[in-house]
Structure formats: structure tokens, C-alpha cells
Amino acid sequence: MITSKQRAMLRSMANTMDPILYIGKEGITDNTIKEAYDALEARELIKCAVQNGCDLSAKEALEDLSSRLYAEPVQCIGKRFVLYRASRKDPKIEL
Length: 95
Fold this sequence. Notes:
Blueprint: H1 4-14, E1 21-23, H2 30-43, E2 45-50, H3 58-69, E3 72-77, E4 80-84
Parallel strand pairs: 1-2
Antiparallel strand pairs: 2-4, 3-4
């Protein structure tokens, strides 16, 4: 678990980021999970967005992805959310 202070730091880092993962009308597929896993391994902090045709809310997508990827939910605003997981091979962000 990350503390509220660490979460605040991650939120400020994610503030300027653009979403790199989009969840469309198919919802969260195996391919979406693989993309998110690879992105978390490379970047540790990713911003995602739920598109208009999707049946999931951003909060539901955040909870689903974070539990499947063992990642920490950082923030959810509107249709966008942020995930964090330390890289197993090459950690970059120091909490």
C-alpha cells in the first residue's frame, strides 16, 4: 500500500501526462491487460481513459485493472484514471 503523501506525489507526476491506454466498447480484454502490464513495467505510472462507447465507468475499470495487475490505484477523475506499480526489473520512481 502507498501512503497518502506518496499518492499525492504520484498524482502530481501524472498531472501532465497524456493517456496511453484507452478502454473501448469491448471493455477490458486480454490485450488491454497485456498493454497495461507492459506499460507499467516500462513507465511505472500510466494514465488511462475510458472511451464513450464503453460500458464500464472509469472507477470500475480502475478497480478491475488494478486488481488484475497488482497495481495501486492513484486517481480517478471523470473518464480518466491513473495506475502505479513499481517496475520489477528497473524501478525508476522513488516513493
